[in-house]
Amino acid sequence: MELIAIAILASAHLSHSKFINSKIIPGHVAAVVCTQILSDLFLDVRTIERTAHLQDAPMYQLQCAMEENCLTKTAYEIQRTNPSWQHETRRLLRFTASSLNIGNEDFRPYLPKHLWQWHLCHMHYHSMEVFATFDVLDSSGVRVAEGHKASFCLEDNTCLPGVEKKYSCKNYGDQGISVNCSDVYQYNIDCQWVDVTDVVPGDYTFKVAVNPHARIPEQSFHNNAATCRLLLSDTFAAVHSCVLQRP
């Protein structure tokens, strides 16, 4: 059942985890509609642990990703100063991220379709500027490496039995994540990594978050992020002991 609340802006503080809409009315009054009908993304931590691994990739294979700022600053310095930069390598922490919509409403991008960005390298439209963030933190909580995808395409990759896929990135189709469907970014997709080339071997915290800025309302944000332990060596990486939390 929906709850409608009216409050005077000058004297009331409005706060609700399921806030979805507001409208300013003449006379400094705000109408707030709260509802339980919302999407709810659930980040699959076991998939992150199972698929995380290191890859040394030559930079000539990463040119599309570089256009989206998916490597660290030192990669761009090499590109600017080294005539043979294409043959240099970057060490990438790759992993698969899967987000299942366990809510009762589809997860839809907040940008209208005419504002989606066309990405020539990947040959499809991206409907969200930031859908996920990936960070490597040291023991003091300081970020030592950051993975960032400039924009994302949202679609139904897998669905539970009896649920049909509705959203697709192909042919300027509608984008989103249906109820009981997952958007899966496989580890071999561009930018599905953190560039750890400049990170010294050791023990770290690895954090993955979806809808990290809460631009799209959900029933709960307590299952939108995973904080994991990361063992990084000269030859391999192990991600384990992931727990769900807020971004």
TrEMBL record:
Its EC number is 1.4.3.13. Pfam families: Lysyl_oxidase (PF01186). Coiled coil: none annotated. This is protein-lysine 6-oxidase. The keyword Secreted applies. It catalyses: L-lysyl-[protein] + O2 + H2O = (S)-2-amino-6-oxohexanoyl-[protein] + H2O2 + NH4(+). It comes from Plutella xylostella. It comes from the Eukaryota. Its main location: secreted. Transmembrane segments: none annotated. It is found in: Secreted, Extracellular space. InterPro entries: LOX-like_protein, Lysyl_oxidase, Lysyl_oxidase_CS. Keywords: Copper, Disulfide bond, LTQ, Metal-binding, Oxidoreductase, Secreted, TPQ.
